[in-house]
Specification:
Layout (H helix, E strand, L loop, with lengths): L2 H6 L3 H22 L5 H7 L4 H29 L1 H21 L3 H29 L5 H8 L2 H20 L1 H18 L13 H5 L2 H6 L1 H31 L5 H26 L2 H19 L4 H28 L3 H29 L7 H20 L4 H8 L12
Helix pairs in contact: 2-6, 2-8, 2-9, 3-4, 4-5, 4-6, 4-12, 4-16, 5-6, 5-9, 6-16, 7-13, 7-15, 8-9, 8-13, 12-14, 12-16, 12-17, 13-15, 14-15, 14-17, 17-18
Length: 411
């Protein structure tokens, strides 16, 4: 089925919503990503130590962890768009705070608050896209709509690195604020496709009971390990390049990752509905592990770019595939909450990566952080291959593309 045919079978109102949603997502991720490669350098310019850089970068996930489950439930109760708007408000305000109050203790607090932006926006965005996508084309629609992430990561870091080098940190942070504000304005034209009250079962179920079911718990643990790997990368890669004297802007790593992620997601969008979701998660985790292994031994700009491309492929495979798996396993009335719970694993990984790995490598070479990240990815792969869909045999078949997801309510 071609993308054009898929688009034509979607109702006109939903086409409009998806188009606006895509533009809002692109602005949001450009806003977030333009700060990504320069934030560790900003802390370093303020006299921050390796430990402090890790804490500042990791504190971003505090807001994610504390608010993600609550905001997921609110997305089910009050609507996806309202939760997206909250995320954009925070994304608009926080960069101005970085610019106005350049002190490390305040940066830690601001980064923690800033984490609410991703908790709110990504939960609302993912749930809204899953609601709008027809079940038979869900993988394809989710794949196309998830392109906002690699596109934003292509635009944002390159833009951020250029602005920081040419105009300084203050102009960079205010530019990020403008991008967030534009996205917030566009949400005024978004409309909910439905407002469903939580089901009686969802009302009475405890958060831990929902999370403990393996349909939710296993994707959460896998994302925890991937988040630890990505958090290690985002916290220490720019400083690693600087200390190793590798002549490359960290923004180019993210640019290469974004381009590779974009190229991977285009065919994935149509293949996911035909070949199943599991095989793409498995291959994506392998890509993450290979990327971290390359960074461990990196001494040349080309190695860094290759690592970025493979990391982007990993993200392009893992993220939309797990989003679609969760959409397959949930009803609209619980979808926001379950998305919030599952992505809390990724958030926790980012939160723990900076401070814990920073302490571990304090007396070692900085590249050892990427050796740790490689091992974490391999552990995640082992868990997914054996626990992702019922028993070990069924999980192996699902994770290798030879069996169905036993917890999917769609199939």
């Amino acid at each position: 089925m071609t993308a054009w045919h898929t688009w034509r079978i979607i109702p006109t109102a939903d086409q409009r919503n998806l188009t606006i949603c895509f533009l809002v997502g692109l602005l949001f991720w450009s806003c977030m990503a333009c700060q990504l490669p320069v934030m560790p350098l900003y802390v370093d310019s303020l006299g921050g130590t390796t430990d402090q850089i890790g804490i500042v970068m990791g504190s971003f996930a505090i807001g994610l962890l504390l608010f993600r489950p609550y905001l997921g439930r609110e997305a089910d109760r009050r609507g996806r768009v309202k939760v997206m708007r909250l995320g954009l408000v925070v994304a608009t305000v926080m960069p101005c705070c970085y610019a106005l109050f350049p002190a490390i203790p305040l940066l830690i607090a601001f980064r923690a608050i800033h984490g609410i932006s991703i908790a709110a926006f990504t939960t609302g965005y993912s749930a809204l896209v899953a609601d709008l996508a027809p079940a038979g084309q869900r993988g394809e629609i989710v794949g196309y709509m998830s392109l906002v992430n690699p596109l934003g990561l292509a635009i944002g870091p390159a833009l951020g690195g250029w602005i920081q080098a040419g105009f300084g940190y203050q102009v960079l942070f205010h530019t990020a604020s403008v991008l967030g504000g534009l996205g917030l304005w566009l949400t005024l034209y978004l409309r909910e496709n439905c407002r469903s009250a939580p089901e009686a079962g969802a009302k009475s179920a405890k958060l831990w009971q929902i999370w403990w079911h393996p349909r939710v718990r296993i994707p959460t643990v896998v994302l925890l390990l991937v988040g630890l790997s990505f958090g290690t990368l985002s916290a220490f890669m720019p400083l690693f390049l600087k200390r190793q004297g590798i002549p490359i802007n960290a923004g180019l790593f993210y640019l290469s990752a974004a381009i590779a992620g974009l190229l991977v997601r285009l065919p994935l969008a149509s293949w996911s509905d035909r070949l199943g979701r599991g095989i793409f998660v498995s291959v994506g985790i392998i890509c993450y592990a290979l990327s971290m292994a390359l960074m461990y031994g990196a001494q040349h700009p080309l190695t860094v770019l290759l690592s970025g491309m493979i990391e982007g492929m990993g993200a392009g495979l893992v993220i939309p595939s797990i989003i679609t798996i969760i959409a397959d396993r949930t009803t609209p009335q619980e979808r926001g909450l379950v998305f919030g719970l599952v992505w809390s694993g990724f958030d926790l990984g980012i939160a723990l990566a900076g401070p814990t790995v920073g302490v571990v490598i304090r007396q070692a070479e900085l590249n050892h952080a990427f050796a740790i990240a490689t091992g974490l990815c391999l552990v995640g792969l082992g868990i997914f291959l054996t626990q992702s869909s019922g028993n070990v045999s069924a999980s192996w078949r699902f994770a290798t593309g030879r069996g169905r997801d036993v917890w999917s309510i769609t199939t």
